[in-house]
Each structure stands twice: as C-alpha cells, then as structure tokens.
Design goal:
Two copies of one chain form a homodimer. By secondary structure, chain A is of the alpha/beta class. Chain A has a single domain, classed as Rossmann fold (3-Layer(aba) Sandwich). Chain A contains 14 helices and 14 strands. In chain A, the strands form four sheets. The first copy, chain A, has a seven-stranded parallel β-sheet with strand order 5-2-1-9-10-13-14, with helices on both faces. In chain A, a hairpin with a 2-residue loop joins strand 3 and strand 4. Chain A starts with a helix and ends with a helix. At the A-B interface, helix 4 and helix 5 of A face helix 4 and helix 5 of B.
Amino acid sequence: MDKDLANLKVVALAGGVGGAKLAHGLAQNLTPGNLTVIVNTGDDFEHFGLYISPDVDTVCYTLAGLANPETGWGLRNESWRVFEALEDLNAPRWFRLGDRDLSTHLERTRLLSEGRRLSEITRRFCAEWKVDQTVLPMSDEPVRTIIRTQDGQDLSFQEYFVHQKCQPCVKEFYFSGVDKAKPAPGIIVKIEEADIIIICPSNPWVSIDPILAIEGIKAAVTKKPVIAVSPIVGGKAIKGPVVKMYSELGITPSATAVAEHYKDILSGFVFDEIDKNEFENIAQWRIIPFVTNTIMQNFGERSRLAIEILGLSKTII
Amino acid sequence: MDKDLANLKVVALAGGVGGAKLAHGLAQNLTPGNLTVIVNTGDDFEHFGLYISPDVDTVCYTLAGLANPETGWGLRNESWRVFEALEDLNAPRWFRLGDRDLSTHLERTRLLSEGRRLSEITRRFCAEWKVDQTVLPMSDEPVRTIIRTQDGQDLSFQEYFVHQKCQPCVKEFYFSGVDKAKPAPGIIVKIEEADIIIICPSNPWVSIDPILAIEGIKAAVTKKPVIAVSPIVGGKAIKGPVVKMYSELGITPSATAVAEHYKDILSGFVFDEIDKNEFENIAQWRIIPFVTNTIMQNFGERSRLAIEILGLSKTII
C-alpha cells in the first residue's frame, strides 16, 4: 500500500458487479476506515417472502473475498440443494438462489422483521464476513427502480433484468419511493468528510442515478471532487444492459455519453484506451480526461485501476 | 388390501408424528379417495419470514414416504447447507431447517403471498409428492395455539415446544384467532360423508383440540361414530409433552384420561395392552374399549394398527 494514497478518504458509489470489482480494488489500497461504499438498493425485491438486496450482497461478498469469481455475483463454492428442490416443486426458477446465499436472505429478512434497519444489518453481516470497510445501502427506506418500457409497461428491476433478461425496450426509469427515502445514517457525513467521490463503472441509469436521487446525496456529492469510471468500453458494456439502454433512449453508447450523463458533478473521468479518441469530448466540459486500461479481469487489475484512480485523485483534490 | 375395509370412508384428525404414522397406516389400507386427513395448523408460525406449517408437512411427507424415519419429522436424505450457513451468521438455530424442507416453506410462502390459500397449496404439494389421499389443513385462516404457563407467560407453540423444549409449566391453552376461523373448504362435507372419524394418537390439548375448536367441526364430528387412539401408553407418551401437560394440569396421565377428554364424542377407544386394566374405566362412559398393541415402530405396525381400527369401525358403524 502506498501510504500517500492509502490515507485518502474515499466514498465510492456502486451498483452490482463492476462497482464491486472497483470497490475491491480500492479496498486493497486504502486504510479500511478510509473507504465507504454507498450501494444502490433500487434493485432490492421480495422473492419467496425473502428480502433480497442483490447489489449490497455483491459488494459485501466481493469485499469479503467470498464472491463467485466466474459470475461476479453470488458466492464461490456455492451449492444448490434448495434451488433444485424448488425446481422439483415447479417453483419459479428465474432467480437463482444458492444455499449459502439463501442464509443471507433468510437472516436479513428475520432481522428486518425484528425491526432492524438495512444499514444496521449490513454492518452486522460485514462484521461476520470480516469486511473492515464501511458498506452503506443508499437508504433504509424502500426505493424501487422501475423500468418503463416503450410499450408502456412498468417493470420492477428484477422482472426486467433477470426474469425478462433485459429484452423489453426501455423508454425511461423512475425510482418508486424515492421522495420519502432518506440517505442511510452516516452517508452525508461520510461524503462531507471524503477527499474524493468515485463513481464506479456501474450502470448510470439504474445503479448510480438511484443513489443520486436520494434527498441530499447529490447536493453533498456536488460539493466534492468527483471522478467517474466509464462502464462503456469501445461502445460495449463489460456486463449488463447499459449499452442497450443508451441505444433505446436514442443516445449513442460511448464513454462520452457516460461523461455527459454526469458532467455537472465531474472533476475527472476515467475511460478506456480503446476510446482515447474521445479525449477532447470529455475535455470540452472542463472534466479532466484520464485514459487507461479500465477492464478488470483479475484481482491485480482491480488494484492497478484503483491505484491509478487514487493517483488521479491526488492531482485533483 | 381388504376390500371390505378399503371401502370405508374415513376422516382422520391428526397433529404431528403420531398422527402422521396412523394416517400412513390408514392410507395403506383404504382406497385413496376414501381417506381424508384433517391436520392441526395451530403450530404454524413464521420464521425467517417464511410460513411454516409443521404438522401439515409431517403428515404430507409421511404419506408421501418422504419423511425421515428416525425423527418422524422432516425429510429423509436431508442436507443442512443453509442451516450451517445460518449458524455461521449467528442466526437463531433453535428450529432446524433442512435444505429440501426449506424449499417447501419457500414455495408455500411465495404462493401465500400470491393470495393462494393454505388448503389449495397443500393440495398442490400433495399432487407433486404423489399423495393421493386428501390432506386438509383445519383452516385457511390463522389459528395459533398459545401455551399459558403457570408463571403467567403466553408462549406461542413453537416457542414452547421447540425453543424452550416444553420446559415451562402449563396452566392452560387457548387458540388465538379461532373465533374468526372457518374450516378449510371440504372439511364439513368430508366429515358428513365419512363412515367413521378416527382421532389419531396425537396430543389432545395441542393437536386435536385446536381442530375441534374450529366453528362447525365438533358439531359435525359429533353426529358420526368416532374412535380415538390413545397417545398415552403405560402412563408415558410415545413422543412429545402430552404426559407432562396432563400432570401439570393436575390430571393423572393415562389412557383413561385421554378417553375422558373426548368422552362426549367417542364411540370407541383404542389403547395399549399395557393399559388393559383400564378397560372398565372406558366402558363406564359407554365407549367401546379396544385393547391392542398401539406402538407403531415400523411401516408394518402402522398398517396392522390401522387394520384393527378399521375392523373395529365396521362393528361400530
């Protein structure tokens, strides 16, 4: 660990797998108390009576070193006894539930039914999993990302993302419940204390926008230097429907489009070498463009990208 | 199968393991369409957000030949992956949840959240498990057996039975919600059509009384010949707290005490050879006493006891 970088106070905004990977890279290079990850809960849902928080789980499992390296989500060395038995009962099988993963959902649901808050439960699980960094769900109140399709349907995120495999055409997004949701305890203070805010390479529309839509979070973030990392590389997504969404919304999917999405709050923007000809597009908005290899194929690449972003942070703050 | 006996129309009232064993014996000797098992749901509870119906599961698993032969409850060839992971999370471990058993609770909870009724879900599960007999939960509405202890506490059944291992002293019982509960669809008709009602060797206080407390069930049963089987043998219980309960209520635990409990509705009473000196006690209430070996240690003994009871039924109806 480079001491100079390790002492930076960082707040990362993250959604699913891409966000978790960069958070993990940052965790390898920061004093644990200096990294806070604020995680999207717009994808949370109830299934089989259980409260499931996919992005929070992905971030926690990844930081704990427990994540399945092949899928990015779920647990490694997972077994599927319950899921196989559910299949025997002809139960819905569109959302895969691993045995160990189920224990997370069961205990979280039990604790919620006792009146505990999602942020408190997340802290408790992190302690069990020996995650020393701070992981905060964006809110303890329910906020649900709804996909409005071009044929006028409103789909919950998991219905769109997992059940319908992102096939419907997207028209717009909204975040049900966001008007009544407050940031989880500690979020605003952590942002105020941060040296830098890093927006992970997550989906701007459905992973980062829900976080920024919570009352007070965008305002707090805006007062700080912010660096975003593009989830679009060479016009393609590393994972997920981000490119498809941009196209359906009538926007050419590119690093530039991601930077433009965030341009009011960005100080710096990190994007891939393959897109280096977009450098001037970024610079036009007085955002510092930073070109590097942004694809994280292993633990070493997560760490290397994190170090480069932290180095860029030092030049910005 | 003895055709003469197999054509009897039987309604059995059952609670947990003892009830399930006799129901299984009856199932081996009756045309499937002729056996209806009405099952106690006073033990049902929510745990980890899941709706658990222990007696219904025990009866269904037993009739399906899926039950764990060593415990009487739960499934054979069960695995405990989720339960072990819950232990790693320091979750409560007082109620054991097997992996395949969990799939039952998950799918039932999901179907309930869709608005399906417990009786409908039970029918659906029985079809999956190839149970051809009719299994009816006593009611689709929630009825919860509450144990009032001698030190004035009110305990839910599972809290008393599993968590506190039946240690508190019992003062009385009541069935929360029973005033608003209706018999599950089909129960009254099945009783009216029955040739004989058989009260299985289940706990009178907490397995059979809740069933008889549902509006209309006792009245319908009273119009029919009824045979009960004693769960007390030689002053001891085969399983569970029935003897401890009788003692704490100030009643000497015996076959006679069980017969007295039901005496207003009984035509016949089946009890163990070891208790044959209680013959005259039973006869005094104009109940036909029937002495045999009532302990069911294997499938053959379940069947043999069922045949004897069906034979007795023929002499009564």
